[in-house]
Amino acid sequence: MSTTVLTGVCPECETDLTTPPIVPGETLSCPECLLTLRVDDIDDGRLRLRMVEVTLRDWGQ
Amino acid sequence: MRHVALVADRIGWEERRLIAAAGAHDLRLSWVDDGALCLGAPAAPALGDFDAVMIRSRSYTRGGLIATAAEAARVPVLNTAAAIHACENKLSLRALLRAADLPVPDFRLVLSRADFAAALAELPLPLVLKPVFGGMGKRVTLLRDADTAQSVYDYVEDLGHGFEQAALVEPFLDGGSSVRCFVAGRQLVASASFRSAGGDWRSNAALGNRHRRVAQGPEISKIVDAVVDVLGEGIYGIDLFETPDGFVVNEVNHAPAFRAVADTSELDIPTAVVRYLQEVTS
């Protein structure tokens, strides 16, 4: 049984990353530098990642 | 197939389930970054592909502003800008609900140390100090003793901006427990009681405290119905405190989390939300 794997590069520490299926808007933690990364786009199995804050200062409705 | 924008800064547990439920009910729900819309142009090109917008921003700044700009471009928005603006300001919400004869906790608006001293003199301890803008239990402070209260206010005065210093002082009700009611449209989908787990007096759902299912009795249904009458149909998390005189409305969340409530309910909350979205966009 094969599982689709997506790949990308941490924009901060340039570590190569692989993830199970994930959609734009979801976040993950870089295993190397531990920053929170958001998937901005997926193109042909390649993730475009952006570093985001763990929480924003004005979260809370 | 109708296409709805799910506007948020990221997809979390709730948004993942909403997107999955939409796919199973012939509705397309797509994430749109709430920090990359650049709204303002009359036709709102960033929202041109969508039949409606569902605001799930966790930010109390972005949600109401985006809803206002989207409505100005004639894009249907859930919740409405008016509802979001009311919910994101605890003073506005209480004023609206009180004007509609809905029970809310007694409170005093505190904009200065003089206000704070007057509130302490007028209301009996213990009291709760909470920011007018904000949520998830952040900076909500229990004041048990008058002699430490003034020191607590030193920290409020040190906050950088008057916007952040605006606060309410209110009686500490129901021993730190609350009832969260999840509403879609006019339907009370689920309700759960939250109680402090012991390490933190606050019972906020975002703080991970103990929760259990609550029967949806006529008193809860009546008060929820009355809140929806004031705010209009929408998707809400309505927080109630129980008092000896009945329930009072503490606050209403316009983009409510529902993970903890879902744990206590046999009802499928994401599907209830998606059905409401279908109704609104049909």
From TrEMBL, chain A:
- Reading the lineage from the top rank, the first entry is Bacteria
Q: What is this protein called?
A: Lysine biosynthesis protein LysW
Species for this entry: Actinoplanes cyaneus
TrEMBL record, chain B:
The Swiss-Prot or TrEMBL record annotates one GO molecular function as: ribosomal S6-glutamic acid ligase activity
Q: Where is the signal peptide, in residue numbers?
A: none
Superkingdom in the source lineage? Bacteria
Coiled-coil region list: none
Q: Name one GO biological process term.
A: SOS response
- Per the UniProt record, one Pfam family is LysX_preATP_grasp
Its cellular-component GO annotations read: cytoplasm
| Protein name in UniProt | Alpha-aminoadipate--LysW ligase LysX
Give the organism the record lists.
Actinoplanes cyaneus
Please spell out the taxonomic lineage of the organism that makes this protein.
Answer: Bacteria, Bacillati, Actinomycetota, Actinomycetes, Micromonosporales
The gene behind this protein is lysX
